[in-house]
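Dear support,

I submitted the protein below through the web form. The confirmation email said the job was done, but the results page showed an empty box. After a refresh the structure appeared. I'm attaching both so you can tell me whether what I see now is the final result or a partial one.
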Amino acid sequence: MIAAEPLARQTAEFPGWQRELAEAVRDPIELLDLVGLTPGQLGNGESAASLREACLQFPLRVPRSFIARMRRGDPRDPLLRQVLAMGRELLPAPGYTNDPLQEADVREAPGLLHKYSGRALLITTGACAVHCRYCFRRHYDYAQEQPDDGLPRWSAALSHVGANPHIEEIILSGGDPLSLSNPRLHGLLRDLNALPQLQRIRIHTRTPIVLPSRVDQGLLDAFANIRDKLVIVVHSNHAAEIDEDTGTALRQLQSVSTALLNQSVLLAGINDDTSVLAQLSARLFEFGALPYYLHQLDPVAGAAHFAVPDERALALARELNDCLPGYLVPRLVREIPGKPSKTPL
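What the results page shows now:
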């Protein structure tokens, strides 16, 4: 048997962001240790066993550069709470399901979801730079999106889009499309750009927020080729996520896109506060991103403890309208399966 190569040698040929992903924290006890906490300090009867049991249902993954932005010794840190697996995720909650948006009903081809008129969504990968505990696709069966006919990845989805002249916009999602390597992403964007009816290519990604090193020159070059069609929607929930490295990445993305937007999820104990949301809007604007949507939580199994009541959400929206200029106020919405668009509250 040939001995395995040392990790440094295995990763030396890969970009820095891929090495960072390879070294991401996957154990909840290691994560707590890095921020100076123990399971007992979390309350609610949490233990090492309960945290690790939650990881069996939905694995933990956090880049170390994101952990470095967390407050040490604070079990209520808003960044930590978004990514730390908790035993409470295993508790059943009425109305919370594995497929809260009923996406299985709108699957037109492997990897292609067609929810709304005029636009379709492409599941590019099941991989993400970070595993957010409130993710509405935490139970998604990504294995079904792998082609089993021997054809190249996405070929059936691209054929479906190309044959439908009413699809004018494609949304790249996942997982996270920026988990793809630059060559694979460049090839996909080239193929999409060749479809004459596509007016916009929209990319939804959290990676530049949690792993800003992903925004490298190869990525910027790929995006620059489709700048006139490109809309980038990043995902940040709290101003503490946006340090100077993240801000630089956002400015670089703004330079190669037609629009740079942000969407957030309203999360109990994390950003359900007017001043926190206002600070996030200001921080985003500082680096060239405009607030887009503030989503009410999708009722996915394991995330009920993040829910904010509608009454509280509406009060926050009114308070934001009172203290911010209109262009910095995100639209408070909910996604309801079968509806033709997001539903404003």
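Response: this is the final, complete result; the empty box was a page-load delay. Strands lie at 107-109, 112-116, 119-123, 169-173, 200-205, 230-235, 259-265, 290-295, 331-334, 343-344.
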